[in-house]
Design goal:
Elements: H1 2-6, E1 24-31, E2 44-52, H2 61-74, H3 88-99, E3 125-126, E4 129-133, H4 134-140, E5 143-152
Antiparallel strand pairs: 1-2, 2-5, 3-4
Length: about 160
Amino acid sequence: MTVGKLGENITIRSIMALFAPTGASLFSAAHPRDGLPSVSMGKFVSVIALRRADAPGLFPTDRLAAQICQHVIGMRSETLGDPPKPSKSEEQNAHSERNEDELNDFVDVKTTRIDEDETALLRQAFMLNPSQTVYEYLKGHQAEVVDFVRSELGAAD
């Protein structure tokens, strides 16, 4: 009983035990950042299991993980989802763009379509660079999110 040790009557609504899958590491973030430098606390929390090959010259893994955790909190990711598949029109556009004259490259304008209703992490537009999906961002950094958890303090489970 917590009353005897802490002097408070605490009711715990839910609890999770997280284990890193083989070859992956766990990273976490909280928002807003409260607490001590060594203890992250906030209303929102995310924990990701990230798998990444060690190679010299790569973007630091802890910063990459912090960005993905921030994305999970901010974009309200609910599931991992499958990687996005390019549509036939996107493949045709990519092929035709390669065949265009290089002098006309400055005219090529891409619009970024952000589906704010998308809840699958890998298919969401990356919060810090909406011109690419989270999957494309991770792939570019030779990383893979194996699983993740997002939780909100006081939310009904």
